[in-house]
Amino acid sequence: MTVDADPADVVSISEAATMLGVKPSTVYAYISRNQLTSRRLPHDRRSWLTRSEVEQFVQRKGARGAAATEAADSAEHDTAIAHIVEDQLRYRGRDATELAVTESFESVSELLWRDRDDQGRAWSLDPGLAATIHRLQDTMPPGSMPLDRLKVTAMLLGAADPLRYDLSVPSVISAARRLAPAYIESLPRRVSAEGSIAARLWRGLCAHEPGEEHLGLLSAALVVLADHGLGPSTRAVREAAATAADPYSAVLAGMSVASGLLLGGGSSLAVQSWLADIDSPASVPAMLGQRLRRGDRLSGFGQPRYRRADPRAALLLDLLHRAPGDDCRKAIVRAAVDLVRERRELEPNVEFALGALCFVHEMDYGAGEAIFVTARTTGWIAHAIEVYETNPAAGRL
Hints:
Elements (H helix, E strand, L loop, with lengths): L2 E2 L5 E3 H8 L3 H9 L6 E3 L2 E7 H27 L4 E4 L2 E4 L2 E2 H7 L2 H10 L12 H11 L8 H15 L8 H18 L10 H9 L6 H13 L7 H11 L4 H12 L5 H13 L7 H11 L16 H12 L4 H18 L5 H11 L6 H24 L7
Parallel strand pairs: 1-3
Antiparallel strand pairs: 2-4, 3-4, 5-6, 6-7
Helix pairs in contact: 1-2, 2-3, 4-10, 5-18, 6-7, 7-8, 7-12, 8-9, 8-18, 9-10, 10-15, 10-18, 11-12, 11-18, 12-18, 13-17, 13-18, 15-17, 17-18
């Protein structure tokens, strides 16, 4: 539970970590287990703790107990980038769903990479490199999925970067700012290199021109999908980074795992597919019944990391229904959610929301995978940087 605090009796997460002799990531783990209580100050979005509670916690656990808990937590919580606290996804202590509606995807990416908002940097691509990407993509088999195109481009960027083994933070971030623009250049719908990542990506995946609400929806999706803690694809990225693999190779490791049909991007593809089989809200029960009789998996519902509803899905579905779009398709989405909620007591997850976004706006098949990977690349890079900074094997130029 997050409660208001007395400004005279608070300590920051970093200060609490010093008092406890653990890492800040472990303090977040204590909060997620309700062992410590997160506090808020007026007009301050950061998380705080009361000094008295931390001091009592130190006495209760003792130095040896804290050290033991630190060791036990390290495998699962050894990151300061993203945590789920009280059913709320937080990026470096800030509510990700709040960031999604107040900040751009680029701004949140910079926050995850540097633990500060470093706006104003250009996310652009050299025209010569863009032309090379176009030539390579023109050799891809017709009908190639967007994710396949993104993988090929990530390999090309690594091969074209003579400084890819410079693992210093500025160099890795400089490389990272080229990835999303390069992904967009990989798509068959060639778009202007101007505008936000959300605007360029929408036009690369959808034939319909977006309005401000559509771009707000896609930008919010990119933000809430940017990271989700130490999931399978992120662990793969961290393993690669621990061997001093270059950032492009680390991202490719994450892409390979994220290609699975049970994870975010692949699951959204399944949702987009089964929603497209429904022609009206009234036919939702019959279609879902047919899928169950065939033994098909009903993708897009349930998220074990949240005790209640997935807050990312709740935000995106609300924005989806508020933005202009096909009313019949929106009604199909609502009917599917209502039916599963009633019969199986399951809430939609963010993969469902992503698939629904693609379905309602008739995006290219596989668009959800491209959105997911574009977003999650930000988190993967943040985790790679975190590993590079703590791994002595990751050399510097």
